[in-house]
TrEMBL record, chains A, B:
Residues 144-218 form the HTH crp-type domain. GO terms for molecular function: DNA binding; DNA-binding transcription factor activity. SUPFAM superfamilies: cAMP-binding domain-like (SSF51206), Winged helix' DNA-binding domain (SSF46785). GO terms for cellular component: cytosol. The keyword Iron-sulfur does not apply. CDD domains: CAP_ED (cd00038). Keywords: DNA-binding, Transcription, Transcription regulation. The keyword Magnesium does not apply. Residues 11-131 form the Cyclic nucleotide-binding domain. This is CRP-like cAMP-binding protein.
Length: 249, 249
DNA sequence: CGATAAATTGAACTCTATCAATAGGTGTGG
DNA sequence: CCACACCTATTGATAGAGTTCAATTTATCG
């Protein structure tokens, strides 16, 4: 059973068996981290690279006045801080949203991985996708109203989680609070609540006890103006169907 | 006289003379591009890498309803599309804002550059800074009101342009319209206009015939909540003074 | 100098935030 | 098992920031 990192990187293209073995081996020594726990603080210079194996974490920054902006969700298969090889200090923080399983991979081990050309290319691809995602979030905050904005985010999570096998029958676990959603979308908690009700009322989503249900993903995509091209999944092993290679079940 | 690319990359660290020579040589064959001209369209798979030598260009995306979001300004020394080595197609467009001078560098030439370890590292650094900038813009859109938002953008441009020698006495050329500013900040043209007036009224900026004057950068930074750490200039040849190594003149 | 784009202003309207209160859930200690 | 504390979700009412529409003035450019 491949770990989520291997699974994600193979979306870019098939990996040599030896590479796959190396990647799978990296998931040993996992540790459980409770929800709402800081992994890395702004200003830190971590020596290990952290990888999420289960649960949701996030990148975020807290302003002087206490406002917080979350600018990425880290889901299983995502690296937290690959840039430590270049940058002197973190310019943002990383913390868990839900209880997570993580591994801390020593620099040397990561260098071993990036020494393998296929892995290096896949990691580069993954980094470019992260960057494209950031751009799409900017479009989301700049151009869409609250309801569309949240719909768009849910479409993205649906696809990203499906690509690591975490979606079943259009349902997936969304272990975050409405206030955290607000910090993600630049909205107040109250308004997030009302936007969610609007989505439910329109039958676009179901959301109960932190399980999100999307009865008709195409409808939600149309509503939120979601176009999956920025996730750059079309070149790899996935197909070009409207759902971007993701099928229920 | 080094070109702006060389100058920018040396902010990360001194380069071997031979590397510098290679980088400077890349600026031959420049061509002039008028304002508001498309360089690369979403969906394209460009074969050359484009570099800005003078003027302002931008990354942007236009939604189905005609709304546009600009998510990066490309100023002298910035590459437009280094990712063509990995991604199959552009997920956004690039166009000039002002008249620009650009060069199209063939893939092979770029590979020659990235074959030099010091250049490769500097380019990686530059890419990470671009990504951090994107995150900061997300904070800007998500958490700050219109006036602070614009103030923050101006502080960033001040520092970035100063780092390639384009700021004199707190003044620099800002060859973009208020409507483009609006597309950048997720604001209507009308509101941008009023926000600019507010900044002028407070004596935080002067802006006349596309020349921006910042009489007191520290005051503007405080107002906009600007912290230059995300531009990661502190590790290179610049100092740690409050202006991040940038001095008038 | 005329034509066109950009900047500016006013007024009405909308979306989102804020304040405040209530209800539901969960975990802890007794 | 209950009481309590605390956090999350929900609802109502009000205020504010930003948009939209429309008109006018000011630049800019051939």
């Amino acid at each position: 059973m491949p770990n989520p990192l291997t699974r994600k990187l193979e979306l870019f293209g098939e990996l040599p068996a030896e590479d796959r073995r190396l990647l799978d081996a990296v998931a040993t020594g996992r540790r459980s981290v409770p929800a709402k726990t800081s992994i890395i603080q702004e200003g830190d210079a971590p020596s290990d690279v952290h990888l999420v194996l289960s649960g949701f974490a996030c990148r975020s920054k807290v302003l002087a006045n206490g406002q917080r902006q979350i600018f990425a969700y880290l889901v299983p298969g995502d690296f937290c801080d690959l840039h430590i090889f270049i940058l002197k200090a973190m310019d943002h923080s990383i913390e868990t949203l839900s209880p997570c399983e993580m591994v801390a991979i020593p620099r040397a081990r990561v260098l071993e991985l990036t020494g393998r050309p296929a892995i290096a290319r896949a990691l580069w691809w993954s980094n470019l996708v992260d960057e494209a995602t950031l751009r799409e979030w900017l479009v989301n905050l700049g151009q869409r109203d609250a309801v569309q904005r949240i719909a768009h985010l849910f479409c993205e999570l649906h696809l990203r989680l499906a690509s690591v096998g975490l979606v079943r029958d259009g349902e997936f676990s969304l272990p975050i609070s409405q206030s955290e959603l607000g910090d993600t979308m630049g909205l107040s908690t109250v308004h997030v609540n009302r936007a969610l009700q609007s989505l439910r009322r329109q039958g676009l989503i179901g959301l109960e006890s932190h399980v999100l249900t999307i009865p008709d993903i195409d409808r939600l995509r149309k509503f939120g103006g979601f176009n999956p091209n920025y996730l750059h999944l079309e070149g790899g092993k996935t197909d070009r169907s409207p759902t971007g290679g993701v099928r229920p079940g």
